[in-house]
Amino acid sequence: MRKIDLxxxxxxxxETARDINRRIVLNLxxxxxxxxRAELSRQSGLQRSTVSAITEELISERWVKEGALGxxxxxxxxVHLHINEERAGIxxxxxxxxxxxxxxxxxxTRFLARDTMPTSDNPQAFLRExxxxxxxxxxxxxxxNCEGIGIALPGRVDPKSGRLIFAPNLxxxxxxxxxxxxxxxxxxxxxxxxxxxxxxAELWSGRHDESVRNLVAVTVSEGIGVGLILNGQLIxxxxxxxxxFGHVTLDEDGPPCxxxxxxxxxxxxxxxxxxxxxxxxxSGCKSAGSASSLSFDDLLQLVRQGDTKATAALNRMxxxxxxxxxxxxxxxxxxxxxxxxxxxxxxxxxxxxxxRTLKERLGRRxxxxxxxxxxxxxxxxxxxxxxxxxxxxxxxxxx
Length: 399
Known about the structure:
By secondary structure, the protein is of the alpha/beta class. Helices cover about 40% and strands about 20% of the residues. The protein folds into 3 domains: about 15-85, Arc Repressor Mutant, subunit A, CATH 1.10.10; about 90-200 and about 380-395, ATPase, nucleotide binding domain (Nucleotidyltransferase, domain 5, 2-Layer Sandwich); about 205-380, Nucleotidyltransferase, domain 5. The chain has a 5-stranded mixed β-sheet with strand order 5-4-3-6-9, sandwiched between helices. It has a 5-stranded mixed β-sheet with strand order 12-11-10-13-14, with helices on both faces.
């Protein structure tokens, strides 16, 4: 049961009911297309006249289009409805310390075009170049009417101001990305932590059973991010910092983290950690590795070639990755945990160590499935598209 906050509430109006019904119909069309009005009425429980009024509105706004006629043995043939994937495009931007990817996608999250650029350690210089790249992308596809821009980044965003407030791996101080991009493009901008965006993408992907209402997305890259879907809702906390498990200390004697703590989960179980372990093994010096030019993909290739030091580095990373996942399973007991990142390309090697660590730490409580996401799904980038889509397909905010 959700308690009503009597200090901050909004009463339901007839407009609220219409908005909810509209989104229900829109989502039913998205899920069951091609679908007739009569079937929408049966699926939703709404009267046919209500469904007809809603669908006519959606057609007039070009969210929905009519398709082929259905078959009936007699009587009037039903007209099937589809989501109009040509209505608009969405620009998605995935910011990582190693580089930034831009993409233009259709409403079905199919990518139409993409671009890449370096991620500058100067946020103002980065914004100038990013706005230039967005303009170029739009000019090259001028026939596409853009609905908005979704941005995923390795940090946390203040839910009220939209300002980036915590991004140690980017090396940026608190910075406003939203307003400068909106001013430059004239488009609404949605910013979100990358792990949160991935969690939303997983929730909307349809890859999970309808009973999955509690899902945790864990992004493993230069750092580790966690996105929480609990009871079907994204959890961000009052400050926007909910889910920062990557900066919980796992090893008090571990190396310093860029957040200021020591031995955080991400300095023990991330891609960067594995590279550091390998550099230390080759140099014999604990401080070595930070200047290594080796990429995580390079490390995985060395593992496949039988390099014993690379294998030991990956195994150690996998152990700490499992230790952090045990923290999530024990504390949250989610229906599923989805792991996103390059590490999933070596899950045949990493997965057994993660499972063993979970069982060692949790025993019979280690029942939550840990699912590696397919790299080709590009969940971080797909999540940026979901940030914009949820404005139209998600449950309306009543607060």
